[in-house]
């Protein structure tokens, strides 16, 4: 699993979604008690290795290691527990942050074929929740859980980034790539649908 975390980080870094040391990934190792492998803090994600991960518990605390997990480890654990996710991906792609800025009460997506890749039907109206940023992972976790819809495997954190999850890292990646496209479309066509002109 740790080698898979490193490979996925390298992919996102190459896409410009994990600039510098930003972003983090996790994968569930076991459910009872909950244990996840999560990328460590402060490592360039384009150069991360399979040694740059740590096992955390349900509170995001390192288990049996002096390695420092990502600052957002607690939210990864909360999402895994509440959503039943097998993997959680957090990146700083620009489109989700811009979309959250325009639609702070949630981003509505509908009538777009790419919604199928995000795990929803193209004719459905999907609302991607947005929460205010916080350095307190309990506060962020509470906000996530309050607006959680089991049909929508994503969370936008205002002026920060996006979390997407799935059964494994591959499904989470596919969902993230499709969601990023959907949000980029939403942002870039905003003026068309609101009747505004540049």
From TrEMBL:
Q: List where this protein forms a coiled coil.
A: none
User: What keywords sit in the KW lines?
Assistant: Amino-acid biosynthesis, Lyase, Metal-binding, Methionine biosynthesis, Zinc
Determine if tRNA-binding is one of this entry's keywords.
no
Tagged with keyword Zinc: yes
Q: Which parts of the sequence bind Zn(2+)?
A: 90, 92
Question: Could you tell me which pathway this protein works in?
Answer: Amino-acid biosynthesis; L-methionine biosynthesis via salvage pathway; L-methionine from S-methyl-5-thio-alpha-D-ribose 1-phosphate: step 2/6
Q: Where is the Class II aldolase/adducin N-terminal domain?
A: 3-187
Record note on cofactor: Binds 1 zinc ion per subunit.
Q: How would you classify this enzyme at the top EC level?
A: lyase
* EC code: 4.2.1.109
InterPro entries of this UniProt entry?
Aldolase_II/adducin_N, Aldolase_II/adducin_N_sf, MethylthioRu-1-P_deHdtase_MtnB
Pfam families tied to this protein: Aldolase_II (PF00596)
Which Gene Ontology terms cover its molecular function?
methylthioribulose 1-phosphate dehydratase activity; zinc ion binding
Q: Which cofactor does it need?
A: Zn(2+)
GO BP, sorted A to Z? L-methionine salvage from methylthioadenosine
Cross-referenced SUPFAM superfamilies: AraD/HMP-PK domain-like
Give Gene Ontology CC terms.
Answer: cytoplasm
Residues in the signal sequence: none
| Catalytic activity entry | 5-(methylsulfanyl)-D-ribulose 1-phosphate = 5-methylsulfanyl-2,3-dioxopentyl phosphate + H2O
Extract the HAMAP family matched here. Answer: Salvage_MtnB (MF_01677)
Biological role stated in the UniProt entry: Catalyzes the dehydration of methylthioribulose-1-phosphate (MTRu-1-P) into 2,3-diketo-5-methylthiopentyl-1-phosphate (DK-MTP-1-P).
Name the family.
Belongs to the aldolase class II family. MtnB subfamily.
| Protein name according to UniProt | Methylthioribulose-1-phosphate dehydratase
Naturally occurring in which organism (per UniProt): Lentzea atacamensis
């Amino acid at each position: 699993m740790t080698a898979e975390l490193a490979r996925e980080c390298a992919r996102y870094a190459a896409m410009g979604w994990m600039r510098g040391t930003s972003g983090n990934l996790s994968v569930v190792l076991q459910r009872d008690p909950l244990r996840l492998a999560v990328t460590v803090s402060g490592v360039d994600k384009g150069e991360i290795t399979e040694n740059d991960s740590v096992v955390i518990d349900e509170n995001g605390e390192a288990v049996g290691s002096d390695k420092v997990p990502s600052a957002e480890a607690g939210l990864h654990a909360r999402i895994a527990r509440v959503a039943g996710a097998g993997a959680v991906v957090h990146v700083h792609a620009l489109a989700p942050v811009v979309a959250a800025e325009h639609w702070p009460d949630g981003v509505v997506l509908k009538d777009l074929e790419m919604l199928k890749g995000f795990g929803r039907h193209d004719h459905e109206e999907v609302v991607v929740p947005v929460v205010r940023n916080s350095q307190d992972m309990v506060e962020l976790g509470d906000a996530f859980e309050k607006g959680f819809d089991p049909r929508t495997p994503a969370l936008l954190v205002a002026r920060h980034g996006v979390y997407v999850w799935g059964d494994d890292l591959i499904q989470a990646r596919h969902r993230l790539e499709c969601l990023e496209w959907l949000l980029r479309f939403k942002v870039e066509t905003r003026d068309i649908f609101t009747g505004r002109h540049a």
